[in-house]
């Protein structure tokens, strides 16, 4: 299964190709996407993205994970989260969300098994 293209991004809104839902924050992986609800894992801007936020995406067999830190990069990504991905043999890119979406879409277009978590506001 291919990783779905992120069709659009603006402040507080993301759309994934083939999905009718408009997301504020989202998770994507080969063959799917869903809302990224920070309340599920108690995530906040600081300390930021936790391994628990990424487990679902990792279990989909991705080779690369792209993390979008928000338009102003307010969302933190602690070293423990990066280490979690690397220990699972997964490449990780941590970028401002607009750059993260562009990189994710480029990798998806190349057929890479890429997943991601993206924060679309601050």
Structure notes:
With 122 residues, the chain is α/β, with parallel strands linked by helices. The chain has a single domain (6-118), classed as Hypothetical Protein Mth938, Chain: A, CATH 3.40.1230.10. Helices cover 25% and strands 30% of the residues. The chain has three helices and eight strands. The chain has helices spanning 51-58, 79-87, 97-109; strands at residues 6-10, 13-16, 22-23, 25-29, 32-35, 64-68, 91-95, 114-119. The strands form two sheets. It has a five-stranded mixed β-sheet, with helices on both faces. The radius of gyration is 13 Å and the shape is globular. The protein starts with 5 loop residues before the first strand and ends with a strand.
Strand segment count? 8
Series of H and E elements: EEEEEHEHEHE
What's the CATH class, please? Alpha Beta
- Which bin fits the share of residues in helices? 10-25%
**Strand neighbour order, sheet with most strands:** 5-4-8-6-7
CATH superfamily, called what? MTH938-like
Query: Based on helices, strands and strand pairing, what is the structural class?
Result: alpha/beta
Taken together, the total number of domains comes to 1
* Mean model confidence by pLDDT: 97
Q: Oligomer, anyone? A: single chain
Task: Please count the helical segments.
Answer: 3
GO biological process, one term: positive regulation of fat cell differentiation
Keywords: Cytoplasm
Subcellular location: Cytoplasm
InterPro entries: AAMDC, MTH938-like_sf, NDUFAF3/AAMDC
